[in-house]
Amino acid sequence: MRIKPGFTLLELLIAFAIGSFVLTAIFTIFYQTSRVLRMVNKIENEDARFYILQYQFERDLSGAFVPLRLKEKKPDEKQSKKKPLEDGKKAKKEFEEVPLEKAFSSTNKGGNLQELTFISSNPLPTYKKIGPRIVRVVYRLVEDKESAVPGKKVFKLLRQEGQKFDLAKYKPGVKGAPLEYTLAKNIKNLNVEYMAAVEKEVGKNGKTEIEYKTFKQWNDEAIKKAKKEKPDLCTFKVSLWDSLKKSSSDFECTVYIPYSEPEKEQGQDKQKQANDKQDQPQQPGKGKKPGPRPRK
Fold first, then answer.
1. Whole-angstrom Cα distance, residue 240 to residue 246?
2. What phi and psi values does residue 55 have, to the nearest 5 degrees?
3. Rounded to whole angstroms, what are the CA distances from 208 to 198, 200, 201, 202?
4. For 286, which DSSP code?
5. Other Cβ atoms within 10 Å of 233 Cβ, number
6. How far apart (Å, rounded) are the C-alpha atoms in residues 124 and 121?
7. CA–CA distance, 296 with 280 (Å, rounded to integer)
8. What is the DSSP string of 176-213?
9. What does the alpha-carbon distance between residue 142 and residue 155 come to, in Å, rounded to a whole number?
10. pLDDT for 76-134, tens place per residue?
11. What is the model's pLDDT at position 215?
12. Which of 7, 19, 104, 192 lies at 20 to 30 Å from 155 by C-alpha?
């Protein structure tokens, strides 16, 4: 009987070893490729969206300020009793400068930001015509029912910008309200913390030290405690869903709001000094006769 030729045990072991090396190399390449694709997908879908949010927040808040408006003063009853008005004369109306209402304001709902609004001097650039340099910006977080997944809430952030300072003109459904557009989608959570530096008296000598206070929302109560109309820092904490709504990534950024102070009084003082300087007669130099005094 003739024996058929076959492989020896050593040849089989060598073949298995070579095959295992090849399979390991293929699996490593596949794993690294899938890992890189996941990173690119994350950068494209999540990081890029957060960078857009961060850029817009920094741009808008870098120009946030509190404008002043004129408000009629209430007449003093004590002075009016002491100095009664003559017949046929009306009391002069006196006005005072007060901060604009809701110049910087925010509200929360269910642990998330509901609305954030402020006055900014950094509007969106226009190329066809020159637009206003002072606008009201409104951010509103609403539930995105079109992208919702059963058992998971999905939000989107809307942005409005307009020349009207009255916040009631920006409410949804109001006729003539500025156009709102979607700034970011697939948001899981979004909340904002506000920090303000408050001066605090220490001891009986009148010394003061700076204390930093954090507020969950910026409203009338926060303004009274901070003794200022707008915060100094805003910290945004955002959680974004991936494209499949299976996992989320957390991001955080802090935006500094520059300190702004009205310079109206300083400008008036400079103008007054310039006018007084022009009205004063000039002193003649050596060898020159004094000229005529200016007529008033």
1. 11
2. -60, -45
3. 10, 5, 4, 5
4. T
5. 16
6. 10
7. 11
8. TPPPEEEEEEEEEEEEEEEEEEEEEEETTTTEEEEEEE
9. 6
10. 665 555 555 555 566 677 888 888 989 999 999 988 999 999 999 998 887 777 777 89
11. 95
12. 104
Instruction: Work out the angle at residue 193's Cα, subtended by the Cα atoms of residues 191 and 197, and round it to the nearest 5 degrees.
Output: 170
Compute the 3-state secondary structure of the chain and give helix, strand, coil in percent, each to the nearest 5.
30, 30, 40
Containing 119, the helix (H) or strand (E) segment is strand 112-120
Two tokens, residue 140: 């509103």
Residue 248 in domain: yes
Indicate whether 286 belongs to any domain: no
Beta bridge partners of 181: 159
- Domain that residue 190 falls in: 32-68+96-260
Which residue did the predictor score with more confidence, 1 or 180? 180
AA letter at 65: F
pLDDT for 271-296, tens place per residue?
445 445 544 444 444 444 444 544 54
Top pLDDT among 85 and 206 is at 206
Residue 209 lies in a domain: yes
Residue in the structure block whose two tokens are 């045990």: 9
How many domains in the chain? 1
